Hints:
The chain is α/β, with parallel strands linked by helices. Helices cover 26% and strands 26% of the residues. The chain has one domain: Survival protein SurE-like phosphatase/nucleotidase (Stationary-phase Survival Protein Sure Homolog, Chain: A, 3-Layer(aba) Sandwich), CATH 3.40.1210. The strands form 2 sheets. It has a 9-stranded mixed β-sheet, with helices on both faces. Strands 9-10 form a two-stranded antiparallel ribbon. Helix 1 (15-23) packs across helix 5 (150-166) and helix 2 packs parallel to helix 4 (110-119). The radius of gyration is 19 Å and the shape is globular.
Amino acid sequence: MNRILVTNDDGIYAPGLRAAARSVEGLGEVVVVAPSSQKSGVGRSVSVFEPLRLTQVNWPEAQAYSASGTPTDAVILGLFAVMKGEMPELALSGINVGENISTDTVTTSGTIGGALEAASYGIPAIVASIQVVDQGDKFDNHHSSPYEFGVAERLVRRVARRVLDEGLPQGVDILNINLPIDATDDTEIVVTRLARKIFRTSVEERFDPRGRPYYWIGGDLICKEREGTDVRAVYQEGKISITPLSIDSTARVEPKVVYDLLHER
């Protein structure tokens, strides 16, 4: 029987995690291991300076555990503490409240981080996220979320079934699925590449009661991008974006181009 590991970065009590588990119910033995609290923005960070704990959670639909630490920690504990090193046939991360599009979010998202950890062991991985109305929703605890996950559930199920049957295409480690807020079952699906950026970064300086400065990192959204990118698909065209990702970050250039940088002219 297939085994499926499910995680997220919104935390064990997020409704999107329950939706993710439902999306693969019946496709195999589902094991859920997710952070005990909200861990958005931690990327693929690993807790190497403190011990981690697993707590079993009473879920009727799956074997579920709450993990202290990051999404990557949760995946590691899932694979080696819960599954005892027997690798599953699929990893699913999400369903995240907040789109994970562009290199800005893919390199900082805890949702993507968990999928990257699974993919590093050769496990095919799927990430699913839905667009938010308010950017602040990305960082809230979504215990009673107003967001609907039905369309995402059904799409993830279709994709997961095919990946379990046929695997991922050659050279692909992760399928990154992002749905616009108003997506329906009839919304067009396009295969995209990562946009370069989605945030116009800024730093806001403030002062504490003693007059000492502190800083908030923020920024406005860049909602317009080139054709073929995930940002354009979701924000400008209202389409569902699926971006194939690889854990190999090597730039595809001829070695000579790099060697030339080492020689004086």
